[in-house]
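Issue 218. Parser rejects a valid record. Input:
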Amino acid sequence: MATTYVQVPSEDIIGLLESKGFTPVEGIGAFRTKELVYERAHEENPAVRIRVYTSVGKGQVVARRRAKDSIKVCTVVVGRSKTFGIGKFPRVHRTGSAKKVLDRMLGRMRDAYKRGTDWIREQKIKDVMLA
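Output the parser choked on:
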């Protein structure tokens, strides 16, 4: 049975993100994007952030049309002079139903937060070993 593409209303995507404490980000460094990007700082270390590239174009009512893009989730560390990635996760394809898409998105966001937690703990262990 083939999976079918579904349009997910932007208000559903944004509503989920905002309910989980994500806020919109404008102009990320040299990478300027045409889609809405949301992020949330990790509670243990605000330099560690979970970012969601929504595939919702600025000013659009629904996510981009089929085969144009997918929702992407990653974990980054934002420093004074540079930002680097510490976690990249499978894309969230808009197939099945809107609820399934949002459920998969939430799962990736949780995976990204867990990666941030693991990275923070790894840094603490390195600090102890170097001391």
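Fixed in the parser; the record now loads. The chain has a mean pLDDT of 86.
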